């Protein structure tokens, strides 16, 4: 659907005594998007959470903390009901889980300390010297650390404060034993090592040999790791036994907290409350009937308005029933509010069924699109959710983005992989975003297969076209990757421009319709949108006319007139109306044509509608040319696939002038003509040939994977850019509010 689902603003008014059953009923229906009361009505305040809300919130925090400790996920439970003693059970689980978690933390801390000691002792084990020999001396100093051996010996030998020394090494470790002179400082070795990259290690205090000490520490480390495993196993057992129960409790408490905090959005007095919100118009009667069944006539429910928002944010409300506000728009409401502000009288809300000043908020947006187009809502929302008053562009993205993507890749092999990848994403992930991208990938892959068939291409090879269409080959001919087929490259460039002109026209036409229905009226639509339509089409029709043909590329007139295709199109006729004489034009006779007048008319209308937009007069040309990126990606992707196949299979020029790959399915080999490039499959002899063959398989697989991935980034990003910048910019703003009804979908608990 181009329009969001119709929404109604409803009001529920009643006494404080029935507020709890009203909240419970509305929550159970999961239909009403509540409006937030801003405290502006005289005599009304925001409500307060119901009694016991803090206690429920604390329990919810406790349960979620347990779920986090146990690393629970939502798919690890079956729905069920809660027993009466669930709070006692939660407390027992909390006590045991906290004990185990604390025990695990203590063990991990002990393990960390052991690992630190191992790190400190391990270097000494490399020296092979007992630790008690490295300390406790009065006449000599001992330093152990890591650094460049030769440099350490040089600086120690050069020190005036050291009269004798000896070094011991093991691996990267150096031990320096030095006797200092009588006038030496307190740390002569350290003084000597200043300027040397030396990491000092403190000598551990133990009577054991370093290797024995390390072995003892390693044994202790293993014991601690076993203890952690035991704790983790017990926590896993608790998780297996209690996952369903905890998730049911968490869901019930979440519902209780939602209901307890709902009055914060209400306008309340000591005796009454008013709750307002938005609901799909078709659901109003179900809401009203449910509330009547729950509390009878103790509340009054009114459908205040059915929203109809124009693109400039003005609200038009309908007089729906006696007792609600009459039809008016935002301009009238703004005048009334301004008058109230000037007289320092606040807005009033009536609780006796009379006219009410409603809470000011725009309706949320519920996008309604066919199931096939539903995945593309994620791409639209990546820019911004549609406002309630806007056209939803999802259906247009569904119709055009896969088309652009498929044309840019146009290969059956790649298309099949895109479809399979998309199907896996769609079926295997619970995330709505990922599953939506999977749906998009499947559609893009389907169009890639479609255009791949028309090009007769399978992983860059063209034999598919001859298999499907006989000797004539694929209907769309070639992609134009060689000088001999350059005309085809020009053809796809012009096709890309045609895509762009049609796409841009759709955008401007949508803007035109929007302006007529909800904006400036017919004249405003003509000046604001019609002007761009005239300029766009006038300019591009002129491009294909003979006027000034000496400065236009020749392929504009020859590509579809015997060049790539013989369609009989050599451009549009001149369409001249009259010629301005040379003495007036100063540059020779100037032919005034219909396309020229369309552009001038568009500029004039644009100046009337909004002169500032004249600064953007080049947009119709610039945005049209931007679609040339479609052909650029088509050629780039085809070229990369061609290079991969050429490296692997090589190519031969036959007597007929053909240059096919020397692949088995082509029926051509080195004996069929002059070899243009050997290819990895045909290089070398004997064992060398086997090596090149294996390398060829690797290049074939990795090369096409790279082309596949680059196809996603290049075709995907370029296609999205054309949608977001060139297309959406014509009519779409976004910024809508998501429909978030007050309620909860039960997945683990039952009423």
UniProtKB/TrEMBL annotation:
GO terms for cellular component: proton-transporting V-type ATPase, V0 domain; vacuolar proton-transporting V-type ATPase complex. It is a multi-pass membrane protein. InterPro entries: V-ATPase_116kDa_su (IPR002490). One of its GO terms (molecular function) is proton-transporting ATPase activity, rotational mechanism. The chain crosses the membrane at residues 395-420, 440-461, 489-510, 522-543, 584-609, 630-652, 686-712. Keywords: Coiled coil, Ion transport, Membrane, Transmembrane, Transmembrane helix, Transport. Residues 357-370 have a biased composition (Polar residues). The keyword Lipid metabolism does not apply. Residues 306-370 are annotated as: Disordered. Residues 83-117, 214-241 form a coiled coil. It comes from the Archaea. Residues 306-319 have a biased composition (Basic and acidic residues). It is found in: Membrane. One of its GO terms (biological process) is vacuolar acidification. PANTHER family: V-TYPE PROTON ATPASE SUBUNIT A (PTHR11629:SF63), VACUOLAR PROTON ATPASES (PTHR11629). Component of the A-type ATP synthase that produces ATP from ADP in the presence of a proton gradient across the membrane. Belongs to the V-ATPase 116 kDa subunit family. This is A-type ATP synthase subunit I. It comes from Natronorubrum sediminis. The lineage of its organism: Archaea, Methanobacteriati, Methanobacteriota, Stenosarchaea group, Halobacteria.
